Backbone:
């Protein structure tokens, strides 16, 4: 398998936000990506793989579970398996550039019958609620060591020297050893996710994604999650920092972007397909979010 550095622009997810994309392949279950200020927002998703990232320049907002962070140049992040996360790249600084590695644990442990899984990796993988992520900074010595390992691994992935697969696996193996040594400290310091609230949000967003072309009310969302309308508003604001209607509009615009990229439908048809009441309202909303009209967007593709 050839490891290629890709720009992560769109994320395709199933109804429960599980990402549809395969990261790497069976022979080498690891993929390298980069995001910069020109990348679209990366919406809420999760995957079975672990994810490690380092910000090479600039800064960008990132959300993991119920926490909302800003990663600055030199910062990094470890995201545990199965953790919901998103990235607001449109709010990044103009010089923002981040490199990521997304990899399955079997790259390191091989089989779950090995000591590598049972002693070192399983305790981290099964502590997702208490350890959904680690925001890495250079001010803490062992976190600085992790950052150096991530920086080395992403550089190797970008340059791909002979034997880069061995070198990347060695760096990531070392990363998990450092994590295992510091796991107790990490779990005591990290705030636990509100798993019930997260489950409510998943149900409501699934409903929006299945019915975005129709009119959606707070009552419909509250009935979907079996919570009151006030709790609907609170869950959206607490976790994704948007109202339900804001999320719906942004999702419609995201779907419109995909349709414009394909170039098969007219702008009027796309407006209707995405649930907008008129082409003029669609154009106005699209420009306020994307920064250009749908026609201008299509002409740049």
Residues:
């Amino acid at each position: 398998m050839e490891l290629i550095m890709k720009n992560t622009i769109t994320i395709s997810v199933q109804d429960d936000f599980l990402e549809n994309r395969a990261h790497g392949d069976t022979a080498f279950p690891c993929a390298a990506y980069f995001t910069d200020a020109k990348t679209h927002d990366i919406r809420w998703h999760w995957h079975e793989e672990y994810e490690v990232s380092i910000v090479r320049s600039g800064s960008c907002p990132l959300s993991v579970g119920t926490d909302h962070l800003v990663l600055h140049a030199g910062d990094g992040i470890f995201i545990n398996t199965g953790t919901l996360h998103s990235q607001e790249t449109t709010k990044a600084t103009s010089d923002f550039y981040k490199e990521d590695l997304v990899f399955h644990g079997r790259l390191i442990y091989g089989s779950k019958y090995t000591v590598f899984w049972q002693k070192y990796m399983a305790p981290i993988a099964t502590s997702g609620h208490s350890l959904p992520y680690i925001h890495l900074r250079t001010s803490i010595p062992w976190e600085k060591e992790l950052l150096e390992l991530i920086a080395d691994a992403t550089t190797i992935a970008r340059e791909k020297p002979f034997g880069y697969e061995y070198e990347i696996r060695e760096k990531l193996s070392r990363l998990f050893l450092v994590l295992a040594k510091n796991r107790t400290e990490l779990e005591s310091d990290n705030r636990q996710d509100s798993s019930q609230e997260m489950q409510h949000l998943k149900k409501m967003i699934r409903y929006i994604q299945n019915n975005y072309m129709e009119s959606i009310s707070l009552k419909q969302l509250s009935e979907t999650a079996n919570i009151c309308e006030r709790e609907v508003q609170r869950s959206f604001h607490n976790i994704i920092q948007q109202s339900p209607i804001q999320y719906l509009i942004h999702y419609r615009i995201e779907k419109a972007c995909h349709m414009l990229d394909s170039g098969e439908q007219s702008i009027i048809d796309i407006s209707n397909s995405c649930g907008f009441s008129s082409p003029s309202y669609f154009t106005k909303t699209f420009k306020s979010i994307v920064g250009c009209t749908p026609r201008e967007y299509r002409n740049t593709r």
About this structure: The CA atoms of residues 29 and 107 lie 6 Å apart. The mean pLDDT is 87. The longest strand covers residues 50-57. The two ends are 29 Å apart (CA to CA).
